[in-house]
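Work Package 3 (structural annotation) set out to generate three-dimensional models for the target panel prioritized at the project kickoff. During this period the team completed the workflow that converts sequence records into discrete structure tokens, so that structures can be stored uniformly alongside our sequence database. As a representative example, we reproduce one entry of 341 residues exactly as it appears in the project archive.
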Amino acid sequence: MTGRAAAEAAPLSIVTDLKELTMFARRHFLAGAAAALAARQGHAAGFPERSLRLVVSSAPGASLDTLARILSPALAIRLGQPVVVENQGGANGLLAAQQVARADPDGHTLLLTGDAIVLASLAQPQAGIGFETAFAPVTQAVRAAQILVTHPAAPFRDIAGYVAAVKARPGALNIGLPAQGGIAQVVHELLGRQLGGLKVEYVSYRGGGPAIADLLARSIDALVITLPAITEHVRQGSILPLAVSTAARDPALPDVPSLAETVAPGFDVDSWQGVLAPARTPAAVVDRLHAAIAAALAEPAVAERLTGLGFAITALGPEAFRARARAVSEALAPVVRALGV
């Protein structure tokens, strides 16, 4: 064939080759996609292979610990392996975060924590344990109000009396916090900002349990804490509730007013708690974990116990969880840095 003839024939040959190439590429793409899907399913097919370690970023007795103790038996049934709860309080949850961030990313070591991990990284970034870089979000399990409480023998009986007492003696009252720089402190600081200042002496603890013990012993004047940690004490009358941080009252304690309806119109802040895995945990394993956690949370006995304490079940998946944490970070970043908590 002459060069001209070859050139004239080339377009048809190219079109034919393109069709064959397209069919070849499509076959290989489909084969690759099928292989990728099989690999993804394979990662989860044998998971879990052994017991799971659920590291809780608080001391026993806190709301995180309560969530872990209620959730873990139902989760173990769903996964077919024991779920061992391990409390690692301290440093606003950063000790627990460090342990899990460094664990093998195979889904067998998980972190149960709250928005403190986001707030801590805003106040003092720590290399290697940031929410966005060190972890794979699995499930935002619940959300809950913060609540301001005191001892029944306190001289103030309601939130208005508390505000008056703080303003009458700036810096004199000792206010307990489950952790320094956590959502409890942010709530109190935001309240103070709205009310023109509430100067108190903060006392930080390694979780809600020790803080509650000190309030019961009257070693502190008041306490801001996640509502489910204190619900039963309120019902028993051993602790006096003043107000919740959400706009509406909580169904678990319907007689307790909100800050919004009393001293701080428009006030509305809640908190979240959820499960994280180390970064690079296979997506299929994360999906398997989320499905098991969501199913466990949906079990009537589990849901009834959690909502009865004041938890609102959310069971958000990985991407929705990431978006929620990012939104909290963006909303509170200017506040946390300006307040210096």
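The first strand starts at residue 52 and ends at 56.
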